[in-house]
Design a protein that fits this description.
By secondary structure, the chain is mainly α. The chain has helices spanning about 5-25, 35-50, 60-70, 100-115; strands spanning about 75, 85. It contains four helices and two strands.
Amino acid sequence: MKNERILRTAKTAYETVRTYLIEQDKVDRKPWGELKHKEQVTLYKAVEMLEENSHTNASSVHDAWLERKMKEGWTYGKELDAVKKTDPQMVSYRGLPPIRRKNDKLFHAVVKIGVV
């Protein structure tokens, strides 16, 4: 990951959303430092995309993520399973539960403040 500003923004946005989800969803999320490199790169790329396309909305970011995951062989599943490559978020943006849409909007808002 080349750009330190984008990396800092990705970390900040992730940690902001992580705190929100822990409080609202009561689901523990790993801190940034415990994420796999591939997970950090995914978040970095999301920030990069938002920087390059300042008019992009949270739905577009989710759609880009969904498309990339499908190319990698991931499908919808009730539970996240890296071995089976299933993820409950493998749905359209509108198909996400409200808390997940809020998660995406919050990430997007933090990135816009930090980067754009």
